[in-house]
Amino acid sequence: MTKAIARYGQWGLSVLVGIVMFLFWYVWYPHALSYQEQYQLFLWTGDYFLEKISLPGGFADWLGEFIVQFYYVEWLGALLLAMLFVVLQRLTARLLPKAWWWLSVLPVAVMWWLMGDINVLLSLPMAFVLALALACIRLAKSLSWIDFLILPAAYWIIGPVIWLYVIIRVIQIGWKHLWSAGWLVAVQLMVYAWLLPQWPLQQAMTGLSYYRIPLQYPQWSGYDKDMYELIRMDYLVRNERWDEIVKRAGECQVKTPFWSNCVNLALSQKRLLADRMFDFYQSGEDALVMPRTRDLTSMLPSAEVFWRLGMVNSAQRYMFDTQESILNGKKSGRCTKRIAECMIVNEHYQTARKQIGLLKKSLFYRSRAEEMEKMIEAETEADQTTPNPSYSGGERSVYGRLRKMRYKEDFLYSYDEIDKMFGLLFMNNTDNKMALDYFLAQMLLKGNMQGFQQYLGLAQQYGGYRQMPLGYQDAMRCIQMQGNVQGSPYANYVKRMMAERRGK
Amino acid sequence: MKNIIKHRDTEVQSFLSVIIISLCLCISVFQLMSCRSVPEHPTMVEKLPEIYPDYIGVTIPADIAPLNFNFVDEDIDCMDVVAKGSKGGEIHANGDWADFNIDDWHELTRQNQGGKITFTVCIEKDGKWTQYQDFDIFVSQDRLDEWGLTYRRIKPGYEVGGDIGIYQRDLNTFKEYAILRETVVPGRCFNCHTANRTNPNRITMQMRGEGGGTLIQKDGRQTWVETKTDSTKAAGSYSYWHPQGGHVALAVNSVHQSFFTGTGQRIEVYHRFSNVEVLDTRSNELILSPLLQTEDLEIFPAFSHDGQWLYYSTSKPCNVPAEYLKVKCSLCRIGFDAEKGTFGETVDTLLNGPATDQSYVLARPSYDGRWLMYCVSSRGNFPVSQNDANLWLMDLKTGESREMKEVNSNESESYHNWSGNSRWFVFASKREDGMYTKAYLASIDEQGHVTKPFLLPQRNPRKYYREMMDAYNCPDFTKTKVELDAHEAYRQVFENRREKVKVKR
Questions:
Q1: Farthest-apart Cα atoms in chain B, separation
Q2: Which of A6, A395, A431, B209 has a Cα at 20 to 30 A from B245?
Q3: Which of A249-258, B12-21, B36-45, B98-107 has the lowest mean pLDDT?
Q4: CB B500 within 8 Å of CB B235
Q5: What is the ipTM of this complex?
Q6: Which domains does chain B have, with CATH numbers?
Q7: How far apart are CA B23 and CA B17, in angstroms?
Q8: CA of A66 to nearest chain B CA: how many angstroms apart?
Q9: Which of B187, B433, B467 sits opposite A351 (nearest CB)?
Q10: What would the pLDDT profile of A270-280 be if each residue is shown by its tens digit?
Q11: A311 Cβ under 8 Å from any chain B Cβ
């Protein structure tokens, strides 16, 4: 009976790990996969591989990125990730004494919890798997000297997680094998001194590519609810799942501008912004678009807003700065694709081709890149035969629509006057109803009642509403009653803002 | 037992044979895949070949890295190029692009110094060969003695620089080396480093923002100084060494960006304030002049070849960014006495910006004292972001200026610097796509004749420049390879070791 449990239990545990991990990533946390996928762009080129393996731990990083690219297809990404966790469990089980096989689930649990930190890269679990796999290759005790040769190579392939292998070997062989620890330190120091002139010692010793932020280390934070809710919102925005955003916003709110940006964008896409905006939490004047923030996430929903509004330059800028804020220097497939699209809309074909060239070397962005390339070719040919240089590239296309909506005049962007920016955009093309909604909404957020009343007529004239939207009716009531409207969402917003200002 | 060993030997031999045969096959297949056919009965066409980069008619120094080039049409099967020197010598390249052997190329350019090299280009497409008109590349009599170029590589983005790095490139080969990358000082933004008249025994560089500082490296010794004092508005940034190597001129400013909504120029860079000061690196004293600490914006200082003058640009304060169109810089100079560490008492205005409705910035005097090269644009004091920025040349003997039409384009030209003998200059241009600056080199003779510029050569230029996602910022020549201990820089930056400076009274 005990033998049977040991025999089938091990396999059962592996199957259980696989199923739980797959369900976790695919059913409950697909947005976590999307988040990781969007901060890299795996290139199927020899140059990219060589560039990766030119650094210690680079091969583990390359393998990690290889798997992460498949997160683009959620079920496939979740399946590969589940398989990696199964391998981790199996290798651990093999190294543990037979009676302790059930403890093999511990590294899986630890690694799963560590991966809750959004900046932990897949290269970390990958390095663990490689180190354990190396430890599983049974090297005879008499051949312990072979570690003298293996350690430098393994350090280069796996990175400092190779220490795990050293520890296991010391446990396997005994304390006399401790020399290998000294040898590994010497290897790391030699690599730092001679081969890593542009890296700090701290990173040479602890890893160049396990964590997204240089000189920082994984936090034992697990899956922070609010953080992952925001990631989910951005994931839904990325996939244009507007109904789900609105539904989820009613169930769970995270009081940040990022959350407001996502919800407002979804409302605008469903033409509900004017009606329901103040039914949801509004962070303040930054609730529609955020000012520039130097990190890799905050500006993404704003960039999506700008793109859909027709503020193409701002979309390009936010995407560019987001990409350059990825502190490990990796490219972002999502950002690169949008940057290329912005360049095409602006007819900057030369620079667009550069971005497209990059995307074409990836697996999942290639087809879109090829479409964009064909579009450029078609438009370039059309430009040569058509004397009109403002050719719009097909009215039915998204790009053609954005060309009609973008600013006709050239002036300097000003976040402080973002309401006027929206207003000008709308005046530029009165079919741009989203710009109209954002214009009026921004005035309400700023508390510019006079401006709101002055331009409310535009909503009637151009908004396409059968009746005045409920949100506007509520705002007007608040203005007329000087805020004394019981249960008014807008009055509540104004009161909260005033209280917050007084608090400051 | 012997039989078993013998049998294993045979197995090993067979295994090795299979590997060797496979390798040979792979190499053969690779050879077949990259074209190696020879032109046969080519059809002659009366037009020049369209090549990338456009090296037709350029003038190069002997010993420069091979001017490899691609055919613009990417659908060709093969390219065959013969380069023949007017004074003898011939080399040949055949393949997907013109990829010359470095040693053979150097021999050919040395042999033809003062002469020309004629290129015969044949292209195979759809099984048919076409021969284009020959074109020439001229090899200058003037040598370019510098070891290489230094430049900063930065993403041509907006407010986030990304993985910034200062690099150096051996001009005789295609090798590039990092001097300082952001990987070693994560999260820090740094300016391009400045050497003294191409000599890297003097280096200065500024790290901006929190924990910033100014690097002064003299004869290999690295110190980081805090150049912000109570009497000055900020730490120093844009810099220039005095030829004697003891002083560095610095602009002290606050740089900002605004963004256009149109499809032309993307960014307007402006400064809210800017003054000029000189740091005596021997005593860590700042030398200030009330003439350079005004409400106007003094910017981009540069010493004359003899160190007796300090050139700079100045503009009236405007309410930027609203009044960005009104920023017009004049080009001025003020006397400087390095022995006493004092400025002159008057300012000469060489070119008046507001009077001519232009902006004159980035004065770079040649090291022989003959020329002054500068940027002219319709506005602003940051020419790399101005699409209409062009290079102009002032004859310092006569004071006459002219536009350098030989090197200008419709896009921005800026960040020019001279070679040690002042016969060559390098500059950054956005001519290819309006966004990614690249380094171009050109020559100038005693009479001021300027030759057609050539793009910094690369082994496979089309692949390199297409895949390069960085812009070349502030290219400059370097006499020898720059030695900077990046590990030491990390220690000093992160341990916040800063020497204080004081104002000279």
A1: 101
A2: B209
A3: B12-21
A4: no
A5: 0.92
A6: 43-139 (2.60.40), 148-500 (2.120.10.30)
A7: 10
A8: 20
A9: B433
A10: 999 999 999 99
A11: yes
How would residue A145 be classed by pLDDT, with cut points 50, 70 and 90? confident
Contact B487 A201 (CB under 8 A): yes
Long-range contacts of A264-269 (CB under 8 A, 24+ apart): A264/A288, A264/A305, A264/A441, A265/A237, A265/A301, A265/A304, A265/A305, A265/A308, A266/A236, A266/A237, A266/A242, A268/A305, A268/A308, A268/A434, A268/A437, A268/A438, A269/A240, A269/A242, A269/A308, A269/A434
Residue B150's nearest CA partner among B205, B193, B197, B202 is B193
Cα of B264 to nearest chain A Cα, Å = 8
Furthest C-alpha separation in chain A: 91
Domain residues of chain A, as ranges? 2-206, 316-382
- To the nearest 10 degrees (0 to 180), the angle between helices A257-269 and A225-238 is 30
Q: What are the phi and psi torsion angles at B425 (to 5°)?
A: -140, 155
Identity of the residue in A347, A351, A412 whose CB atom sits nearest the CB atom of B258: A412
Query: Which residue do the tokens 């199923």 mark?
Result: A19
Tell me the DSSP string of A295-364.
SSSTTHHHHHHHHHHT-HHHHHHHHHHHHHT-TT----HHHHHHHHHHHHHTT-HHHHHHHHHHHTTSSS
A290/A286 Cα distance (integer angstroms)? 5
Instruction: Tell me the chain B residues in contact with residue A198 when contact means C-beta distances shorter than 8 Å.
Output: 165, 178, 180-181, 183-184, 486
- For residue B220, what are the contacts with CB-CB under 8 A and spacing of at least 6? B201, B483
- From start to end of B126-184, where are the E strands? 128-131, 135-139, 148-154, 165-170, 176-181
| A289-326 per-position pLDDT tens digit | 999 998 999 999 999 999 999 999 999 999 999 999 99
Spatial distance between the Cα atoms of B153 and A157, rounded to a whole number of angstroms: 28
- The answer to whether the CB of A252 falls within 8 A of the CB of A229 is yes
User: Which tokens hold the place of A228?
Assistant: 């992952």
Tokens of A171: 């446990």
- Cα gap A420→A431, rounded to integer Å: 17
CB within 8 A of B414, min separation 6: which ones?
B362, B375, B383, B384, B389, B391, B427, B428, B429, B437
Distance CA B301, CA B283 (A): 21
Pair type for strands B128-131 and B43-44: parallel
Neighbours of A13 (CB within 10 A): 19
How do B413-418 and B401-403 pair as beta strands? unpaired
The separation between CA A13 and the C-alpha centre of its own chain, rounded to angstroms, equals: 32
Q: Which residues of A touch B181 (CB under 8 A)?
A: 198
Of B274, B288, B282, the closest CA to residue B343 belongs to B288
Contact B263 A314 (CB under 8 A): no
At residue B49, the 3 state secondary structure works out as: coil
Pairing of strands B502-503, B285-287: parallel
Asked whether the predicted pLDDT for residue A340 surpasses 70, the reply is: yes
A180-222 pLDDT tens trace: 999 999 999 999 999 999 999 999 999 999 999 999 999 999 9
